[in-house]
Amino acid sequence: MELDVLCFGEALVDLLPDRRGRLEDCERFEACSGGAPANVATGLARLGVRTGFRGVVGDDAFGRLLARKLAAEGIACTLRLARERPTGMWFVALDARGERTFFSPNARFSADKLVAPGDVDPAALARARFLHVGSSAHVLPDGRAALRAALAAARAAGVRVSFDPNVRVHLWDDLAPLRALCADVLAAADVAKLSDEEAELLLGERDPERAAARLVDLGVGVACVTLGPRGALLRRGADVLHAPAEPVEVVDTTGAGDGFVAGLLSVLSRAGAPPALLPTETLAAALRLANRVAGRVCTRLGAVAGLPRAAEISI
What we know:
Elements: E1 3-8, E2 12-17, E3 29-34, H1 36-46, E4 51-58, H2 61-72, E5 76-82, E6 89-94, E7 100-103, H3 122-126, E8 128-133, H4 141-157, E9 160-163, H5 175-188, E10 191-195, H6 196-203, H7 208-218, E11 222-226, E12 232-236, E13 239-243, H8 256-268, H9 280-297
Helix pairs in contact: 1-8, 4-5, 6-7, 8-9
C-alpha cells in the first residue's frame, strides 16, 4: 500500500478524567488512544492523508483496544504485541485553564519502549513519502537504535523525515542520550517541530526565532517552533513566517502539538515537491492549517476527540 506518511513510535492509552482538578478527586476515567506518533497518524487520516503506523503495544486488552481504534480511523496499522510488558497508560489531570499533568503507573516500563531495529520495515517505509517520528518510544538503547535504523532506511529510499521530539523529561535518567538522539534526527529532518520549551532544552535557545534559525543551521529543511497561545513560526532557509494561534475556548491542551504536526504534514506530504523547494505560499498555508487543527484539538477533552475531518476545516 502506498502511503503519504508512515508514523513510527508509541501508541498508548490515555485515561481521561470525568472532571477538572486533582486525579485523586476523579471518580471515572475514559480510555482513549494516545501517544504522540499515533495521535499524528489519527489526525492525518482524518484529514484524508494515506497514513500508516508502526509500533509496539502489550499483548493485552489495551493493546487490542489501540489496534481497533487506530484501524477504525483508516490507518494502515502494524503493531507488534509484546508479552513482556503491558501497554502504556497515562492518567490525565486538567486544571481550570485546560493545562494538563500526567500520571502513569508504567511509563518507563510499557511495551512501546521495547521498539527495536527489527520493527523497522524498509520495504514498507519505502512506500511512504514521509516518515514521522518522535523520541518517547526510544528511551532504551534498542529503541534509539531502532530510530536511527528508521532514519537510515528512509534516507536510502528517498523518504522525507518529519520529527517532533515531544520530550518527556521524566522518562530519561540522563538527558545526554536524548540530546544526542535528537541531534542525529534533526540533522536528517526535512521537517521538525519543537515547542519553545523544547527548543530551550535541546538547543539552549530561549528566543523562538533564534531557535528556528539554529534548527535550519543543524540541517532541518522546514523548522517550526510552536508558542502556545502566541501561535507558531516557521523558518525555511532565510524565510521566516509567523501565524497566530486559532482563537478558541480552551478545554484541554493535550495533543495540541500533535494536531499541529498533522495539519502541517497534511499539506506538505501531498504538495508534490520536497519542503525545501515549495513556494512560500504553500508553507504559509501549511502553517495556518497546522495552527487551526491545533486550536480545534484544544476545544475537546483528550488528544484525539478534537482532531477534525477534512470537510470540517480549511486552509
